[in-house]
Each structure stands twice: as structure tokens, then as C-alpha cells.
Amino acid sequence: MTLEVAPIKGIGVVSPETHLVRAQGPFQLRRIRPGISLRQRDDAGFGGLGIVDHARLQPGLVVRMHEHRNDEIISYLRSGNMEHTDSAGQSEVISPGRLMVMNAGSGFSHEEEVVGKDQIEMLQIFVRPETADMEPGVQFVSLDETARTDQWRLLTGPVGSAAPSFVRQAIYLYDTHLSAGKSISLPSMPGFDRWLYVFRGSVLVGHQEAETHTALTISADEAAPDVTATTETDLVLFLIDRRAAFSREGTISG
Q1: Cβ(106)–Cβ(133) under 8 Å?
Q2: By the 8 A CB rule, do 21 and 206 touch?
Q3: Which of 25, 35, 102, 176 could share a disulfide with 73, CB 3.0–4.6 Å?
Q4: For residue 6, what is the DSSP state?
Q5: pLDDT over 90, % of the chain
Q6: CA distances (Å), 204 to each of 11, 57, 208, 209, 216, in order?
Q7: Greatest CA separation found in the chain?
Q8: How far is 163 from 169, CA to CA, in rounded Å?
Q9: Residues 6 or more apart in contact with residue 171 via CB below 8 angstroms
Q10: Tens of pLDDT along 173-202?
Q11: Do the Cβ atoms of 147 and 97 come closer than 8 Å?
């Protein structure tokens, strides 16, 4: 099934002022509604991209065992280490060099603990699956940190893509670390709109400036402008087919 969606005009901005910010002891969360600038009725998602949480977690924090259903969850760390323990009996430590994708499907439980002495800064990305109640599972992928220096590194893609991990949705996830003054072209794919997030730093995209915690929405039909880092910068980029069908039954992504 192909959905009808309103086109994106020019470069849109998802400003930090639209985020839902919460701080409680060792837990700080910035909840980003990626499609809020589209002003869609009853839906602040960006197609299959439901929610992006930018979190800071202090050493010793434990998030006790809890269940997710119908969320495809990408845990992307830029600092610190987190131990994941799940209902399938697996225990793994994820880090900037170790990515986790949890395909919650019909139901999957896990516990998260900040291990070591360093604060975690991370994105927890909640993708809407193409349909509800699929088979649950979890993936762990080792990453080469040098592969993102001044170039795009592909992290996640649809099932059957060349990406090292998958979500069951028409979404690709990339990241890069840009040196100050470095310019890079945005990846493009026919029919896939772009959602670019400044994890840290500042960039110029065409004539549009964006700083830490700001996201830009760019149409698939928009000529891909170069991205220039005005300071040392970490970026995350999604390519998303907003016309692809998705379930809104997710615990968080819906």
C-alpha cells in the first residue's frame, strides 16, 4: 500500500523549542517529534520515523525490564557504555562502536544499565514497522569509527538492503563526523525524503543554518545541497519513504 502524503516545500526546520524536555535525577531526555513541522493532523511523525529521543544518562542508572511492542528501536551511542539484557536471555554491551537494533514485533522485553564511569549520550530511535505483530528479535553490529570521518557511514536500512542492520520499514540511517570547514553532499534516493539531525555542532545546508539539537527536513525532489560544518560536527541522517505503509500500534513509535 502506498500512502498519500503532503510534499515538503524547501528546507523545513524542527527547532529545539518543539522538543519535549524532561530531566529527573540521572536521566535527561529530549523527545523529538520528527514531523512536527509538517503540521499533520494527529501525527507528529515523519512517515515511518515515529520518535527520536536524545538522552543523557548518568553512570549507575538502571532502566528495569520493560516491554516494547511494534517498535523498531535503534540505540545509537556517541559516548558511554550500556548493558542490554533481554527476555531472550541475551546480554550485550553497546557503545559508540556497537549498535543495537531491537525489532520488538509482537513483544520483546529488555533492561538497560549504564556501565562504567562515563555518561551516556545517545539517540534512541523509534521506527514504525510496516505492519504490526511481526516476529521479535534483536541485532548487534560492530562499527568502524573511522568510517564516519568526513564521509557518510550507513548504519541501518530496510530488510535486504546493503546496510549492516535492518528495520522493517523503508528507512535508511547514516551518520558522519565532519571536521570544521568540511563540506559533504547529502545522500539521495528517488522517493526518499531526508531528515537531518545535528547531534552536536553546527552546519550550513544551502542557505539554512542549523545548530545542536536542530533537524532539517528536505524533500526527495529538492536538489541535494551540500552540508558544510562551521564547527566540528556530528550528524545523523535518515532517508525515508513517507509513502510506505506503517503501523501506529507501537509502544512509543505509534
Answers
A1: yes
A2: no
A3: 102
A4: P
A5: 85
A6: 12, 29, 6, 5, 11
A7: 50
A8: 13
A9: 47, 48, 49, 127, 156, 157, 158, 238, 239, 240, 241
A10: 999 999 999 999 999 999 999 999 999 999
A11: no
